[in-house]
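Shapes recur. Our protein:

. . .
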Amino acid sequence: MAGTKKHAALSDMGVKNLKFDKEKGGTVQFHADGAGLTLRITPTNKKTWQFSYRLSGRQKHMLLGNYPALSLAGARIKREELRAMVARGVDPKQAELEVGDNIFENIALKWLEHNRPRIRSSTYQVYFQRIHKHILPALGAKAIEWITKKDLVATCEQCKSSGFATPSRVASILKLIFEYAEDSGLIEINPATSLTRLFKQPRAIEGFAAQTDQKDFAENLRKIQRYCTNNKKLDIRHKLILQVLPFTGLRISALCQLKWENVDLETGKIDIQAIEGNKTKVGFSIYLGQRTLQLFKEYKELGLSDTYCFPTNGPKNPFVTRGQINRKMKAAGIDPKLQTLHGFRKCLKTLLMTINPSDKLRFLSELALGHKQENSLERTYNKSSYEQYWKSFWQYCEDLLVALRDNQTLPTWQD
């Protein structure tokens, strides 16, 4: 191999201590053990075993795995197995492809199972669906080392008909799969390194649509009240979610997936940290106001489920979905293009700051919505839960929204 010099056989200590020589430079440096076995080192000191052989007049190379996951002794055993195959006239690289180790579909599914214990079950289902729907039809049968950046771009481009965000999300999954393949020593060059930049989704400045004007907010609250009161056929689960969502400041996904084990009906406390699918990484709790707590108590007596607060018997989700509530909100007369379910959080925060823009209320409202503190040092050293404020804060929020809905004088916050 060009650029490879003959050396004495490598040793365990030698392999462990080998570093990329910055003075020599280059993109990859090679250290031969002999009989075709070489240790490749990159500028980041990533070490990969490579076996080189000659068959039918052609020089070929194949990657065996990364060090230290594959030790020197293990690499030598593999080398001897592969040399025996070459001696029989068998191409070990082609044989590996036929077994399927390098077929993209097998690698993608291995990556998915490898990460299953590390991700939420809902995230696993999303990955599973996107891999099977958008990625495997185009790339599944190909050997991963033959997949080019052009192939990846074409795969992502085909997803545009499924929604604006789909190409960027598929690109993110492809990037993770190819990083896994690279770390496993299956590919030498990663064609997905800059893929996500090509399909980066612009972040909407305004975020989720919300009618934050007090008159609009009040009218939307009245629409929900009229719809829940007058529609006798409305599912009780959908009814309660619509009734309590604006008063809790919860993300709609967190409310839909709420479990009874997270709800204390004696105190009205809900543990948000324990809800699967909760977006924020910050642990926090909320307290239900007295009216909202009474609704939960009456609902619990129906005994629909001992696990999820809003259960279903559907094959995909064991709980009510965001889409179902979106349709009910639209049926209540609220335009989803102007007011989203998530937007009620923005409406609540805006109303609080309009009534009393104090620093204390601003700070509490940010924590109440599950947002991280802006000051990283504050997050590191201040571990207070501010438990003494939450009951009065959430009762104030409930009183404020009821007064707004019923056209009454709005109460002021008492610091």
Observations:
- Residues 5 and 15 are 16 Å apart (CA to CA).
- The beta strands are 29-34, 37-41, 47-55, 58-67, 263-264, 269-271, 285-287.
- Confidence is low (pLDDT under 50) at residues 1-5, 276-281.
- DSSP finds 17 helices and seven strands in the chain.
